[in-house]
Write a structure and sequence with these properties.
This protein is α/β, with parallel strands linked by helices. Helix 10 runs parallel beside helix 15.
Length: 429
C-alpha cells in the first residue's frame, strides 16, 4: 500500500516570533516514523484567520491527513475551531462531550469553569472527538476534501498523550496494509556524526541496502538509527547492530532512545549505589539532570554548587594552599572537591567539575573552555583536563554530559579511556 500523504499545520504567533521553539513537529514525525508513516510537509502560520483558512483548504486538497497543532485554548487568539468550522461550512456549537470533559477537568482541580474556558467546548458541528487525557481542551477530527483533518492542542505533554493513546491507532487503523517501519536507536556519546560515519565506512564496507543508516545529532548525544521496512530484514539489522556495538564500544550509551542521566540513575539503582556531585562551572546542571529522573531520590545524596573559592574551602575542605598555588581550575582542586563531597555525603561515587565557562576569565594557560573533571569513588578518583571552546551553555551541557558519562563507564567497569580524552585536550597539553 502506498504511504499516505500526511501534512502538518502549526499555528500560533509565538511560533512565528520565536518566543516558543517548535518541538511538536519533531515529536509527531518521530512517532509517525515508528508506525511506518512519515510527515510529507509542514507549514507554520500565525494567528491569522485568512491565512489559516487558506492553508487548511489548500492542504486538504493534496493530503490524506492534515494534523493541525495549536489554537485550541480559551483565549481570543485561539482560532482553530472557528476557522475549521468556516472551512468545512459547519456552524459552531457547544459539544456535549467536550463540555463534560471540561467540567470534569475543572472539578478535579478545584477550578471555576468561566466563560473564556467554556470556549474550549465550542466546536464545529459534526466533528469526532479526540480525547485529551491530560489537558482541558479535547481534540477533534473531521473529513474534508477526502482528507482527515485532526486538530490537536499545542501543549507538548497533551499532544504526546493524545498521539500515544488515540491518534496513532486511528491512523494505523485507517491505513491498514502498510509495512510497519522499524527503527532501532543507538545513542552515542563522545563521537560526532562524521566520525561515526567514517568509522562505519571503513570497518563495515558491505553495509546491507535493506538497513537504512541515519544520524540525528541532539546535544549531547548522537542518535544512530537503523531503519528497516520489513521484518524479513531483521536479521540483517541485527548483524549490523553486533558490528556497530563492537566498533563503537563504550561510546554507545544504551540500547534504544534514552538520556545520559537516566542511564546513570538506572545503573545506580541496579547496583544499589549512591552518587554526589560537586559543581562549579556547571552551576548545578549535573544535579538538576539527575534529579529530573524518577527514582533519583534513592541514589542521589547531595549536590554542592561550590562556585566561589570560599565555599570550596568551607563546604568541601579544598585546601587554601591548593587554590592559591594551582587555582580553582586545576587537578588538585577538583580532586579535593570530589573527596570533600564524598566525605560530606558518604556516597559511593562522586562527580566534580571546575572550569572556565566564559566568555571571560580565560588565560593563556587556561583559556575559556578549559575544565577539570574528577570522578570515581573512595577507592579510586580519577581526573582529566578537557577543552570545550564555545558558547557558555554549550560548554556547560558538554561538561555535565562528560561527568555523567565517566561515572557511567565506572559503573560498567569500563577501563578504556574514551576517544574524547584525546580529541578534547588543551591545544598545548
Amino acid at each position: 500500500m502506498k504511504k499516505p500523504r500526511i501534512q502538518l499545520l502549526l499555528t500560533g504567533n509565538e511560533l512565528m516570533s520565536g518566543d516558543v521553539v517548535d518541538t511538536n513537529s519533531t515529536m509527531i514525525a518521530k512517532k509517525l516514523e515508528e508506525k511506518g508513516l512519515s510527515l510529507q510537509r509542514k507549514v507554520v502560520v500565525g494567528d491569522d484567520v485568512v491565512l489559516l483558512k487558506q492553508e487548511i483548504e489548500s492542504i486538504s486538497t493534496m493530503a490524506d491527513v492534515l494534523i493541525v497543532n495549536g489554537g485550541l485554548g480559551p483565549t481570543v487568539d485561539d482560532l482553530t475551531a472557528e476557522v475549521l468550522a468556516d472551512v468545512v461550512e459547519q456552524g459552531l456549537e457547544e459539544n456535549e462531550f467536550a463540555l463534560s470533559h471540561l467540567e470534569s477537568w475543572c472539578t478535579q482541580r478545584n477550578f471555576r469553569l468561566d466563560g473564556p474556558n467554556r470556549k474550549q467546548a465550542i466546536l464545529p458541528k459534526g466533528v469526532a472527538i479526540v480525547p485529551n487525557p491530560v489537558g482541558s481542551a479535547v481534540g477533534f477530527s473531521i473529513e474534508h476534501n477526502n482528507c482527515l483533518i485532526i486538530c490537536t492542542p499545542g501543549v507538548p505533554s497533551e499532544l504526546k498523550a493524545m498521539l500515544d493513546q488515540t491518534i496513532l491507532g486511528l491512523l494505523t487503523d485507517r491505513f491498514t496494509g502498510l509495512n510497519e517501519t522499524s527503527v532501532y536507536h543507538l545513542p552515542v556519546f563522545g563521537l560526532g556524526e562524521s566520525t561515526i560515519q567514517r568509522m562505519i565506512g571503513e570497518a563495515i564496507p558491505s553495509w546491507p541496502a535493506s538497513v537504512e543508516l541515519g544520524f540525528r545529532a541532539s546535544l549531547p548525544l548522537v542518535d544512530v538509527k537503523l531503519t528497516i521496512q520489513s521484518s524479513e530484514d531483521e536479521k540483517a539489522r541485527e548483524r549490523c547492530l553486533v558490528e556497530l556495538r563492537a566498533l563503537l564500544g563504550a561510546h554507545v550509551v544504551a540500547e534504544q532512545e534514552t538520556s545520559m542521566p537516566k542511564v546513570v540513575v538506572d545503573l545506580l539503582l541496579q547496583q544499589g549505589k549512591t552518587l554526589a556531585t560537586a559543581e562549579s562551572c556547571t552551576g548545578g546542571l549535573i544535579a538538576s539532570q539527575i534529579t529530573a529522573i524518577s527514582g533519583a531520590s534513592a541514589v542521589f545524596e547531595m549536590g554542592v554548587v561550590s562556585y566561589s573559592n570560599r565555599i570550596k574551602h568551607d563546604l568541601l575542605n579544598v585546601q587554601s594552599m591548593s587554590l592559591e598555588e594551582h587555582g580553582a581550575v586545576s587537578e588538585a582542586v577538583v580532586r579535593e572537591m570530589a573527596l570533600g563531597a564524598l566525605q560530606q555525603s558518604q556516597s559511593d561515587y562522586v562527580i566534580a567539575v571546575s572550569g572556565i565557562a566564559g566568555p571571560d576569565g580565560g588565560t593563556e594557560l587556561k583559556p575559556v573552555g578549559t575544565v577539570w573533571v574528577a570522578w570515581g569513588g573512595e577507592g579510586k578518583i580519577d581526573a582529566q583536563c578537557l577543552y570545550f571552546p564555545g558558547p557558555r551553555i554549550y560548554f556547560q551541557q558538554l561538561v555535565a554530559a562528560v561527568g555523567l558519562d565517566l561515572i557511567r563507564r565506572r559503573l560498567l567497569g569500563v577501563d578504556e579511556a574514551p576517544l574524547y580524552f584525546k580529541q578534547r585536550r588543551l591545544p598545548r597539553s
